[in-house]
Amino acid sequence: MPLVTDNLNNRSIASILLRESGVIAYPTDTLYGLGAIVFNRSAVSTVFVIKGRQRDQGLPVLVASESQLREVAADVSDEAMALAKKFWPGALTLVMKRHPDLPLNVTGGGDTVAVRLPDHPCPQSLISACGSPITGTSANKHGGLDPTSAAEVQRQLGSRLSLVLDGGPSPLGVASTVIDVTMSLPRVLRQGAISIEELRTVCPIAEPDPMPTSPESRGS
What we know:
This protein is an alpha/beta fold. It has a single domain (3-199), classed as DHBP synthase (Alpha-Beta Complex), CATH 3.90.870.10. The protein has helices spanning 8-19, 41-51, 78-87, 121-130, 150-157, 196-199; strands at residues 3-5, 24-26, 33-35, 61-62, 73-74, 92-98, 112-116, 134-135, 137-138, 163-166, 177-180, 187-190. The strands form two sheets. Strands 4, 5, 6, 7, 8, 11 and 12 form a seven-stranded mixed beta sheet that branches. A five-stranded mixed beta sheet has the order 1-10-2-3-9, sandwiched between helices. The longest helix has 12 residues, at 8-19.
């Protein structure tokens, strides 16, 4: 697994590998991500194999712009757009209805998808170069330590990846906040970098469940 510095030249190489059905690791504002083009079913299947992840547990999706959101999500609510305008790019993941064109293996067969616009130039550059959203699941073995560095990615995933872009330590080092906006009153599924109090400056937010269900186990 080549480990290279995150720069413009290596991002260009990474985007070529993605277009050739490769799976790469890249830095984001939260944790290191494991990337494949979401409309490439074969590459998405490889992500599950690399992570050791069950196929019914969906993968988060990263976009490079608000307009790209509608390529992967349907029935985008006013609350979803208001939250996106406030916190994107940033550490907020929105769970929405899956767009009919988004392959079902991305969502684990479910009807929802978790989408984020990261506040980091690397994934934004990769997505723009590929002309497609990419997967945004953390670049670790399923259940493994959060990958906050390229070295941790390399330790966990070994030689399984086409490329690892080393952008140094993750700026936040914590996962994004995940909120379900498919219901009339949005609900936090995972508390992360953005607090409920911050979310409530935009719209009403339901109290989180005492034992919230993982957004990924819900096919997101």
